User: Fold this.
Amino acid sequence: MPEKDKVQYVAISPDMFQAQNNDDEIDLRELWNVIWRGKWIIIVITAIFAVASVFYALSLPNIYKSEALLAPADSDQQGGLSGLSGQLGGLASLAGVNLGGGKTDKTALAIEILKSREFFAKFAEKHNILPDLMAVKEWDMATNTVVYDEDVYSVDKDEWLRKVKPPKSPKPSNQEAKLEFEKLIQIVKFADTGMITISAEHYSPTVAKKWVDWLVQDINAVMKMRDKKEAEGSIDYLQSQIAKTNIVEQKSLLYQLIEEQAKTLMFAEVREEYVFKTIDPAIVSEMKFKPKRALVVVLVTFLGGILSIVFVFIRQLYNS
Assistant:
């Protein structure tokens, strides 16, 4: 039999398994001994982290949250247009009139407008939210007033004093402010119910409520003006087409289109809550939303314990 084909068999006795298990037990015992020898180091470091976490948690300002529950407003003003589809579809399309079988999803459009840069720029300028957004230091509960950072913004002079490097300027730009605003505002649409929630977070519960109320009011106003402008433009175009035709049937269809657009104008005039109906309005919250100080203390203390154990092991390896 060739030498290379020979197979060696090694007998493994139970004693070898026992020796391996003993090695594992020795390793675990040694690890425990290292931890035990460094127990005072672990206790001291963990205690330092625990005390520091308490001071850190207490230094965190309270954040309050205000939230409004909304429902999409009915869009019945387009119900009669579907019957005209196919009869005057091309002309209506030129006039900007929607004759499609389905309704326009105004809710989705309104949400996207809420998130747009143009809407935020007009919203921030109209309500002057930049000081409350970018310069707040704390909220005085006793007087219900916002305290501003004097190094950032002067209330008396209405002047921005913050020191920043170019391309930033002392007064925050719309781009910079919008990034901060998006961190505090949340818009959620529930797919199962179609309901929408708009929430705002702030040091002041009063400011948080105002922001939510203003957002709902402004988006309703914006959507109303968009539809009014579109309907008025459509009516002007349709009236010009009536003057150009002598066909009675065609005039009748054009008058029906004008009637539907007049309904849109009527809805826009009489409805305050044009695209969103308020089901549960925003309130001034009496309870803070965050921070969860107990959780902060627990997590920081746990982190201190882990780091102290790691330090003890590194110290043992270095000494070895």
Residues 76-87 have pLDDT under 50 and may be disordered. The first strand starts at residue 64 and ends at 72. The radius of gyration is 34 Å. The beta strands are 64-72, 136-140, 145-148, 153-154, 159-160, 185-189, 196-202, 276-280.
